[in-house]
């Protein structure tokens, strides 16, 4: 069964994300250049078959530490950030070298979660990556560790890879790590732990049974693979966890072998804008709505019109994400606002046919269009957008 499902996935795969952990990319004395070259060779083959390849590469911190002649893991956040700053250049140089012999160019993208939470930055990242793909370039993405502190972090690169799947519309995410896949128990402690070849639902029991393993070198561990897999599944994107230590693992996979663990989503792709709104968007202000507008939004799936807005909180530009609350301050949901806060202040309480008179122009009748709004706890709607 796994073989057939996998065959369909690989045959229709046009865009793949391959995330490689520090444990695969580094060794005791620095970057594991041989592994990087081996993975680069396999990715070049996949690229040659017409598949867009995006690499999420860890390893900057580990490489930086070893470059400084140290062996211990950095203890403080500034130490880790400094190590990443030292190692990132080395890491990119290694990828340059690995792909150069295949006449492939690489591009570095350093992102924080904050970059994906703002619609404009999110779209800029997407357009940049689309352009790179159009040029046949391999984007190599890592978290921008130098500036990322907890609030704006992805958590680890497994999550970054999953978010990138939404951003680029990937057909598959592959995580290369230091175990063969997901086991039903910790294989380092329980000798007869069994590899799980196929996962169709992630529930508490699975998390409990498999989530306790963690690698010493990277930051992820199995729990984070499961978190990334559930993000991918919600996005309708299959995810594979494979051993990065196995020499030709990606070629074996594309040749029809079934290594590691395959997570298959049960749902189709959600509308990309709705998904972004529900999972990534960060509200920058609040619109207070009267009872009629609150009801229309909650019960009738209507848009937000200026007439129903009683009060505006916060200063925001156009296309910002804002929350909508009812007269009691209860959260209704959030959406993208067609007008900046200064203009919403002027048109609030007025009919839509008065917008042009007040502002001197009219962008839209609605302050938030229903298609750009998600109710709090609304399930993400399926269908391409
Ligand atoms: N961004 C980190 C690095 O390049 C790795 C984070 C992770 O592996 O989750 O070293």
Keywords:
15 helices, eight-stranded mixed sheet, Archaeosine Trna-guanine Transglycosylase, Chain: A, domain 4, Carbamate kinase, binds glutamic acid, alpha/beta, 18% strand, 385 residues
Describe the structure.
It is a single chain. With 385 residues, the protein is an alpha/beta fold. The chain is built from 15 helices and 15 strands. The longest helix is centred in the N-terminal third of the chain and has 24 residues, at 77-100. Residues 21-22, 58-62, 84, 142-143, 145, 156-157, 218-220 line the site of glutamic acid.
Name the overall outline.
Answer: elongated
Q: What helical percentage do the residues reach? A: 25-40%
Q: Enumerate how many helices there are, as a single number.
A: 15
Main beta-sheet strand count, sense and barrel state: 8 strands, mixed
